[in-house]
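Progress against Task 2.4 (sequence-to-structure conversion) is shown through the following example record, which the project officer requested during the mid-term review.
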Amino acid sequence: MVPSTPPPLLALLALTVLSVSAAPNMTPDYEVKLLMDPSAALNPSDHKLTPTVLSAFGMPTTVTKMNVQFHDTSSKEIYSAGWSPRIRKSEGQDTFELTYKKRYPILGDDIDGTLTTANAQGFDSGDSNYDAQVEWGYSQKTLSISRKKTVSDSGYSGVELPNTSDARKMLVDETPDKFDGWVGDSWGTTKLASARIFGPVLARRSVGTWNKTQVYVEVWPIKDAEGTGVEYIVEASFKTDSRTEAGEKHDALIAFLTGKGWFVAEDSLKAGLIMDRY
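Structure tokens generated for the chain above:
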């Protein structure tokens, strides 16, 4: 009779199988996003970037317009589950960009731990359809994992966005499996079928350079808290694949903006403002 395998060896073999089969965490890129004071960075008459700001970043006067709408039920069930479906139309493009974004707050600067949490929920390096990014604000970081799709803009022109009916159909038809089954079978498509539009917001993007790095400054006119006017959100950002570079240039850009009198020591929460105010 062949002796049975000792339990400790069985446990070791099982652990080895798990370690071999488990896919590694996703590898994110990093986008540093910092707020600028609209009263200092924008012309009061037309709310465009001042010549001083344009000059500091070597930016032309031309901008790219981006029209964005978010989608959720009136009770914001999708947003409450950590997801954020949106449709964007950028100037010069002939397609709508659909994005299904899952957000994970990064607590205690634990980027790797947050990536591990996402891995346990099915977002790992084995799925090339999703992109991971650490959104690095003034004091907060968020891991965002996005699936992007494109849909023809036939029947629409310029940066015009789809109406509610067309938007629902696009988002439902293109829904990725992870989003659709997040809470239960067909959860995502069911919620999108009754979703409404939050927005739209027509933003403007300028592109320049700073510290040998491509930098963007975006102006987002968002409905104010009272719902009677507009609050202009001005955000400077750059992207990098290096965590070290992101941290170093995050601090350097804060110092640069502070020295110019443009920095706002708050985190940028555009999506949250749009979901609250529309």
